[in-house]
Amino acid sequence: MDTAFSEQMPHGDGRAQAGPVKPMRLLCVGDVALAGEWVASQVWSPLPGIASAEETRVLLNWELPIGDVVNPAPRSSGPRLLAHAASPLVVSGWCPGLATLATNHILDAKEEGLARTMEALQQEGFVTVGAGRTREEIARPALWETATGRLAIANWVFPETHPDWMAVPGPNCWPGRDEASRIIRRLRDVADWVLVVVHWSDELFPYPRPEDRAIARELAEMGADLIVGHHPHVVRGMEVIGRCPVFYSLGDLYFSEIRDDRGNWIVRRAPRNREGLGIEITFARGKNPTYQALSFWQQGSQVAPDPRGRAARRMAWASRPLQRFQGSRYAEWYGAQRSRFDRWGGRWHFGVRKLGWRGLVQRASCLSRSRWAGRGQRGTAEP
């Protein structure tokens, strides 16, 4: 066992206790982004089924940094967004827990915002992984240990999400296949299971890119026991590669709607953005991990279990093509589906349905008034 490597990883505060050995239970959920003044008055209840105990944890993807000043350096794509200063307190009832920070937004409040975010989350009881103030801290995996065993967690952000690439301080950027393989092999030497959490791919489309599936296969062959994806802001399908379950995207657990200073929408949820997938993973000594899918729904300033099971049903629906198509056949199928989505599917689900019927009527009314005003101006113009 590589003792030095083990000692440098942050541990969850669960340690071996006297009494019967209970399985470890980890609930992985999607992106959490809490912005707006409403945040200051919120403290959410613990997620159902995950009580505060040595053998249970929640793992969430913390999307936005806390800060007072927006990073003036433009991102290569997308806006800079900040979380409310009180946002870690909202989820404090879920602690002790784990928060992944390798995201494309984690430097949106500059280096000071990253440091402040890590300190605030750790103060509430979260072990953070996937970002840091030094190269060593950035690359450091997390280790959660109980009497049942050890779980190692590696967290990477990929270039297609447009992060502040290889910045120090900053997020843990994808190191390439060779280095990732070396890291996973070392983690296997010090842990019973290895979970890889990836911030990757494109947004809103319900299927992974062919290259996402290729990387997932390589990670599974390197020795990952499970792979969990974030960033697309919608639930995607899953597949099992060898013995490794791959969840391509859990969607958003909760992502605040955000306006700019002029009142224009920067982030506004469509119905599919409200679906949040939870994967409850059970780790038992000497066994492969098992899992079950849970569904959550964003409503107002809360997130709650979804009795309609929309996220789990979405995952099952989006998994069918992954079971049916492989390799070049999947690439061909994906290209055709993507073309349809870009032509009309995306406009329907994230345009018309985002506005809702009331918003659609208001938009049509505004366009109509603008056209009539334009005609009136042309009719009164002097020759």
Task: Please characterize this protein's 3D structure.
This protein is of the alpha/beta class. It has 2 domains: 3-324, Purple Acid Phosphatase, chain A, domain 2, CATH 3.60.21; 332-383. It has 8 helices and 18 strands. The chain has helices at residues 3-7, 87-90, 110-124, 135-139, 177-190, 210-222, 310-324, 327-380; strands spanning 24-33, 56-62, 97-100, 126-129, 131-132, 142-145, 150-157, 170-171, 193-199, 226-230, 238-241, 244-247, 252-255, 258-259, 265-267, 275-283, 290-299, 302-305. The strands form 4 sheets. Strands 1, 2, 3, 4, 13, 16, 17 and 18 form an 8-stranded mixed β-sheet that branches. Helix 5 packs parallel to helix 6 (210-222). The protein is globular. Residues 1-7 and 375-383 have low confidence and may be disordered.
CATH superfamily of the largest domain: Metallo-dependent phosphatases
Question: Mean pLDDT, nearest integer?
Answer: 89
Strand content: 15-25%
Order of helices and strands: HEEHEHEEHEEEHEHEEEEEEEEEHH
Might you state the CATH topology name of the largest domain? Purple Acid Phosphatase, chain A, domain 2
CATH class wording of the largest domain: Alpha Beta
Number of strands: 18
The CATH architecture name of the largest domain reads 4-Layer Sandwich
Q: How many angstroms does the end-to-end distance come to?
A: 88 Å
Sequence stretches where pLDDT stays below 50 over 5 or more residues: 1-7, 375-383
What is the SS-derived class?
alpha/beta
Q: Give me the Rg, rounded.
A: 22 Å
Number of domains: 2
What shape does the CA trace take?
globular
Overall helicity: 25-40%
